[in-house]
Design brief:
homohexamer; amino-acid racemase activity (chains A, B, C, D, E, F); Hydantoin racemase (chains A, B, C, D, E, F); globular; Asp/Glu/hydantoin_racemase (chains A, B, C, D, E, F); hydantoin racemase activity (chains A, B, C, D, E, F); EC 5.1.99.5 (chains A, B, C, D, E, F); four-stranded parallel beta sheet; alpha/beta; Rossmann fold
Amino acid sequence: MRIHVVNPNTTASMTAGIAAAARRAAGPGVTILAGNPDEGPASIEGYFDEALCVPGLLKEIAAAERAGIDAHVIACFDDTGLDAARALAAAPVVGIGEAAYHVASLVAGRFSVVTTLARSIPALEHNLRRTGLAERCARVRAAEIPVLALEAPGSEAEARIAAEIGRAIADDRAEAIVLGCAGMADLAGRLSARFGVPVIEGVGAAVRLAEALIGLGLKTSKVGGWAPPLPKAWSGPFAPLADGAAK
Amino acid sequence: MRIHVVNPNTTASMTAGIAAAARRAAGPGVTILAGNPDEGPASIEGYFDEALCVPGLLKEIAAAERAGIDAHVIACFDDTGLDAARALAAAPVVGIGEAAYHVASLVAGRFSVVTTLARSIPALEHNLRRTGLAERCARVRAAEIPVLALEAPGSEAEARIAAEIGRAIADDRAEAIVLGCAGMADLAGRLSARFGVPVIEGVGAAVRLAEALIGLGLKTSKVGGWAPPLPKAWSGPFAPLADGAAK
Amino acid sequence: MRIHVVNPNTTASMTAGIAAAARRAAGPGVTILAGNPDEGPASIEGYFDEALCVPGLLKEIAAAERAGIDAHVIACFDDTGLDAARALAAAPVVGIGEAAYHVASLVAGRFSVVTTLARSIPALEHNLRRTGLAERCARVRAAEIPVLALEAPGSEAEARIAAEIGRAIADDRAEAIVLGCAGMADLAGRLSARFGVPVIEGVGAAVRLAEALIGLGLKTSKVGGWAPPLPKAWSGPFAPLADGAAK
Amino acid sequence: MRIHVVNPNTTASMTAGIAAAARRAAGPGVTILAGNPDEGPASIEGYFDEALCVPGLLKEIAAAERAGIDAHVIACFDDTGLDAARALAAAPVVGIGEAAYHVASLVAGRFSVVTTLARSIPALEHNLRRTGLAERCARVRAAEIPVLALEAPGSEAEARIAAEIGRAIADDRAEAIVLGCAGMADLAGRLSARFGVPVIEGVGAAVRLAEALIGLGLKTSKVGGWAPPLPKAWSGPFAPLADGAAK
Amino acid sequence: MRIHVVNPNTTASMTAGIAAAARRAAGPGVTILAGNPDEGPASIEGYFDEALCVPGLLKEIAAAERAGIDAHVIACFDDTGLDAARALAAAPVVGIGEAAYHVASLVAGRFSVVTTLARSIPALEHNLRRTGLAERCARVRAAEIPVLALEAPGSEAEARIAAEIGRAIADDRAEAIVLGCAGMADLAGRLSARFGVPVIEGVGAAVRLAEALIGLGLKTSKVGGWAPPLPKAWSGPFAPLADGAAK
Amino acid sequence: MRIHVVNPNTTASMTAGIAAAARRAAGPGVTILAGNPDEGPASIEGYFDEALCVPGLLKEIAAAERAGIDAHVIACFDDTGLDAARALAAAPVVGIGEAAYHVASLVAGRFSVVTTLARSIPALEHNLRRTGLAERCARVRAAEIPVLALEAPGSEAEARIAAEIGRAIADDRAEAIVLGCAGMADLAGRLSARFGVPVIEGVGAAVRLAEALIGLGLKTSKVGGWAPPLPKAWSGPFAPLADGAAK
């Protein structure tokens, strides 16, 4: 199985960390191909960044489709561009946000999310509602850490995340914790051991769910909202992408 | 008052129709400035088109902000790019989809939507749920007309839309009808007279709600999901847009 | 445009304040006709007062209809009598509660309401649910001020309201505030400046939404729950009102 | 136990039928005191009638309170005036609509309602949502029979109601039927026998639930929305009622 | 009327307490037959205990059916085995949890539940959602008292329950309290007097609702999920029970 | 990895079919251990059968735990006994119903379920609501086939299921189909090819999700509703099971 993991921001060091997390989580016989666009924002913190990383993300998806791939993982916790990617790709696509919510629902009746910045909470709440799993989520919390600070040695990121986890267990009646950023992937094991509840990070969850879909021979339904793009006139730089996608 | 109405697709004849509808609906003393991006899809029919019209749309929003404007209207019924535009703009932004739902809720307990293609139904249903007005909507129906066919003389578009309206009143217990495409704006009056129920089109609704916000001195809250973009490194063609937006 | 603003309680000084707020908010060319019943409670604080102000309110609506009017605004935040008024009137009717919720939803993802007394919270929560906008409301808070104390010079009303606004921003993640009483209309501007978030008061919001409906040529749907009263036998003082209304 | 059953319309023959149904359903040792206002509409068909029957209804409630009573039943399926009556009365108050929904939920996973006119459907749907039992209701159906036609010998009322019940069982997956008008009370037994599912009428259900509350020593909570009216200035005919009620 | 009250755990002293509470609450002419299985757990604290008390519970239900009974009450607040019992029994079946929620909804707009252990909260929340009354419930609280400690003289159970009630009124805006364990039945009167709000215990509520169903001649609908068991092959000790039940 | 698949009914031929489906779906290096209780019903069709298969099911779970296992799959589409099994087991437990809903949500915006008998629809609807994925499900349909008829050669089972799938795509706007019975597992591939939409069967979905949990090192949270059984007195045949489980 070949799984394409795309980090929609342009920070290569973060892509490397995501790729490592994906490989750690992947089952036997799975090849992880990780990449990121070369155009767009260095991190995704709010709706503006989200919207403008999508063209680069879709180009990566299209390139991986042409190269032959069994599934795509979008490694931004906001599940940025997921609908468009599903419309574009023949292979199934899994977002790390939705993956984490689905997996958490299998091991906990109720979970809380700990993400980076409060400005991302509304987007995550909308995704939870769309996925249908909002009722399983007690609360989305922000540790108030910029995304790229997660990579900084000596930052207090882990301490802040741990503090929110403590509050989630005490105040939200959370039975599990979802880490709400691709950059938090390598904290999951340590935090789970510390707090004694499942701590789910989305990169691994998405890779494993992508494997499940591949193994079951399932692809995105092309009836409904994820139908392939219709052929039509396009102007500007996205025309080739659109031409390749239309059916 | 100066209201910027942006058609996010590249079809200038459709922009002209939207501008005319906006001017018909506008109150005294309102100047409508209408435009469309010069890059992107000729029509918006599904998530892929939606995602890739957003960069062009945001450039139009940014240009209008610089030129001085009191409010923006996004004239695509999917409310494409609305969150990113609200994060970017200082002036308030109204989507024609949400505008139609809010206005319909003031004159009908329950309404149905008649849109173009079935592939757009899921996106509209998600927007209804986000707006909070999904409970007021009996059903989203598709007349199965391509967007640009709405402009074609001699098409059967109006007949098909009328047929769906008839079904909505008979089967959905709809008390009003929302027309689910910017290209349907000039049908509203005729169809309302024919069926004896309010028929709401979004362009006029959005212009009038934008006037209301301007009149009340209200702008988008910058606390939460619509906070301005954070300054950060950007690569590629969106960097200038991002630099102008970041605060 | 002629807009009828009816204060459903009998306190003429409050009606004068509401009329002033309506005129401040109204667009060019709008005439505000404000009034109140001469029978009923001096303020509306709970379900009992609400129910018994409705006959007087409906008489005012009927009189304004006969005098020729383009829209009605019901200036009690509980949206008292709104359904019956819509059934009675040919012109559109807007409640200040629903108006504030709709307008807040256009500038904030999430808002809190600050009303007068805790006994009114359940009625406001029901209205939010009926409108469909309950999901957009983080919390309804009470400042524990009697309605008529809002008019008393030197009262601590504004300080108490401000305290609740502070809590709403800090604890509810509110991005905007809705002031939950017609008597609070002139506080909105000052409180918005102080807290840096939109503060919406319903009288202005309703006047501007009424203008929007008039401008769009929209009236209440007469199919469904707001159909005109059926002709039937009536006893007692409401018989003339009913006879005038039945169709 | 003394239970006051108030028919909020002025049709004495309908009050007699309701009283008979109440007495048939009542347990041993229960005295039914039935009455109706002498001012108001002859039947309640929509929001306008609903609003204007409330003053007469509240006078009846107040009179019964003074006479000494253990509980009140409001015998209109729209649960007209229920909130105001609960604020006014010391004794518990049960509406026949909510009573029927609660009882149906104890014998069926899912029920449909068959009411008189389609114009009443929205009000019943709102009540179902307020009660919390909307999810248990598959559909509210209208047999399109005016309320007073239920009393007319030789009307086709029962046939039309039966036709809707047949559709509810076949199409709605209804496991029980709620009859949505006080005037349908004596049809329940016959229709239940005919269709082989529980058919619940609200007058009996409400009397039995009122007995349950009395037996358990429970009264309306006076904390929250049903707190007693506050003392204040009143003008006009309701002043004595308000004075008696305020605490 | 003969009402069978079954305590699904094996603690006879608790059954005696439940029987006493049932008799206190029952109306004139009602005979209470109380019992418990002789196989199963001594108390029900979580899903495992719940699942394994059901066979014994169903045997008790079947035996009471054969002996002739008018209704069954399941006296565990988790409403353990309620669906299976309804499928098995011809007589109506009422759970004490659902009974308490329905009754509380008639005297309070909003209630909180105080149960024994936090591990039971998820089950109660699921039941509230199934019943449809979750929206009426502000919060389910646990006093952290083991079930059988409720019987221990000198325990601090009542003090802990009272502390949670105080918090529910202050923090949840609860207008009434539901006691969430059959073993708390005799505290209701004292706590209601102390806190000045209705305090509902489920045993009495269920007995009175069972009387209501009997009085109205209503039985469980046999169309849908509560249809009688189908005849089929059974192995092991439940075969006779299944044979007796199948239709 | 060793995955225990338990068919909660006693029909060994059905267990064999389930085991075969599980092995077909399993990834490399996965050993499937399939079994069924020797006591209980031959098929599970409704709440009564569901309740009485649970003791046998839990004994199988406990035995597999003692034998050493990495995860359990409960192969009844009603997810019978799932909560009790999660409380009992240290290894994670996945129900085939929930597994199918989660997997369908990754490849379709909206799905319909086709199950065996209408009497099972309410239980599936409750599970959908508990899982949180009810909003993703358009409708639960019954093909009206007894469970064991699925195994009968020459039955019209597949034709009836196909007919419901056709209706689901045409009438429910279903983008994927979930087959609602463990006995339908081998129909999925053929029906998916025929209808051109993903058809998900739960046994394979659950095995693949169980692999995902094992691969991620995740186990059921023991904080909350799935905490281990408390030690207590037990009478009768379940005492040893309870003693082994309590912690």
